[in-house]
Amino acid sequence: IVVIGLILLIFTLPIVLKSFFLDYYNNNAHAALTSGKLTEEEVSEALRLAWIIGNTSNLILYPLLSIAVAGILRVIKLLVYGDVPFFKYDFGVGVKDNIKQALLLGLFIALFELLFNFIIVSFPDNSVIKIACYILFLLVVLPGLLVGFFYSSIYKNKIFSVIKDSYFIYLKGSWRILILMVIGIGPFLALEIALNFIWVKQLIYLVLIFFLLPLLLLASFMVINNVFDEAINKQHFPEIYRKGLYVIKEEKQDE
């Protein structure tokens, strides 16, 4: 778990640094406007440039992080299944086997985030559109694509079949997956909204990534694996049905 935390820390560090520099840049731009060093038009142009850099850079940073997630989920799968992973080897196998799906899933997340952010900034005074975009992205688009990472770590399929099946899985276990989403994303959103101290916020981000994300990925794999059992494994892959999950005696007898 510690090694997983370190890998996540390394691959999320560019995203955290980007967030830090953009916050710092935006704060300085607003301070320059307040002091009269820059005009409102100049600040608006500076903020527009920061927005473009921040959102388009995710088209590279998210797929990069996704590569690490592909390797990590291979290791977590072995842990959940009761096998002994050899981290360096199994991480590499996970990346090799799932790099195409992982890159595309990360890219799709970045593209949809860019699309919804573009809609929001295009209608800055329309709170209904803003709320609708957040709901669609956080409750519809993002969960299904995230399930795709777990799906790809177990089943081999083409990317669009992965996405289609992942959304089917999300619908089957939506309340459980949404709880995981709240636990995983909630602290980061709360920090983004409530904390204005840039250094402190980014340090807390790093702490959460190191300590919370590995445990969340482990818990998520077990929960989503349970949904896979209900939706897929029981009928199509009985050899891995209930694998890695404790089966009580009564259930064993029923089977």
- Binned, the helix content reads over 70%
Spans of 5+ residues with little confidence (pLDDT < 50)?
246-255
Task: Estimate what percentage of residues fall within beta strands.
Answer: under 5%
H-E string: HHHHHHHH
- Chain-averaged pLDDT: 88
Description of the structure:
The chain has 255 residues and is mainly α. 86% of the residues lie in helices and 0% in strands. It contains eight helices and no strands. Helix 2 packs parallel to helix 4 (127-154). The radius of gyration is 20 Å and the shape is elongated. 23% of the residues are buried.
What's this entry about, in short?
It contains 8 helices and no strands.
What attributes characterize this protein structure?
8 helices; mainly alpha
Spell out the blueprint of helices and strands.
Elements (H helix, E strand, L loop, with lengths): L1 H34 L4 H41 L6 H36 L4 H28 L4 H14 L1 H21 L3 H39 L12 H6 L1
Helix pairs in contact: 1-2, 1-7, 2-3, 2-4, 2-7, 3-4, 4-5, 6-7
